[in-house]
Amino acid sequence: MNVPWKERLDEIRLNSLADMFGVEKPIIGMVHLWPLPGAPGYAGYGMGTIMDHARRDASALLEGGVDGLIVENMWDLPYYVGADVPLEATTAQAVAARAIVEMAHVPVGINVVHNGGLVELAIAVAAGADFVRVCILTGARLWDTGDLDHGCAADLLRKRKDLSAENIKLFADVDKKHSVPFPGLDLETHIEWTEFYRADALIVSGRMTGDAPPLDKVRQARELATRPILMGSGTTAGNIAGFLQYADGAIVGSSLKVDGVAENPVDLDRVQGYMAAVRSVRGG
Question: How does DSSP classify residue 260?
Fold first, then answer.
């Protein structure tokens, strides 16, 4: 039986990662912005410096062969949560993200730490981005900042529709790093809830930035999920082939930096080595 409203929701949902990225097992490189205005690490260097470093990292990632980018406020720590992200940081990230969108030939996403669902949607609309990474679409978790946070699906999906922005896809974390789940929320339940509330793809990560999840966790997520699974942390040139047995792609940041240190610039040689390992899995 045809149900028109359900058909419309299904039509706007991403069918596969290849539909967006043009390849199987896409790799999405992180553009970690320098501290934005208002953050403790910001030293008055201005948007020109922020964008120069962002463009350099994006250029190295693109030259190295990644299939997508995410622009993130990585160094605005300690982080605000949700809608508490300051206006000056939001506008600065939108300006920087637009600069990356204009230079990139691959899909670009937005992430605002921690769980800035409506904030990152606003940035994505302003920047012309293709997707957002939603840290907690459903359920509830305790962040490393001490904030007890909850899913933003109801507000986020309504706002996306209001802004005529349903072309912006939702990549949602399950069992998100830098946080612990509300008691009783296991991986199976979180995947079920997150898929029910219209995530286009799911993200599985380790405990903290740069930490890999156990391979068994990725295998379990693949068995439980009906949506594509992306690795969200901890992949390297040495382990990505193993993870891509089960994951449908990966988001990668720290291991592509000079010496594998997150705050360093992107290292082109590391990107090329990582992508060579990915090609061995893709078969090309």
Answer: G
Confidence band, pLDDT 50/70/90 cuts, at residue 93: very high
Residue closest to 252 by CA, chosen among 55, 64, 48, 86 = 64
The full length of the chain comes to 284
Residue 128 in this model has a pLDDT that exceeds 90: yes
Please tell me the distance from the alpha carbon of residue 250 to that of residue 182, in angstroms, as a whole number. 26
Q: What share of the chain is helix, strand, coil (3-state, %, to 5)?
A: 40, 15, 40
Of 201, 199, 266, 260, the closest CA to residue 235 belongs to 260
pLDDT at position 29:
98
Number of Cα atoms under 13 Å in the Cβ half of residue 178? 22
Q: How far is CA 195 from the centre of its chain?
A: 16
Residue 197: pLDDT band (50, 70, 90) is very high
Residue 284: predicted pLDDT: 56
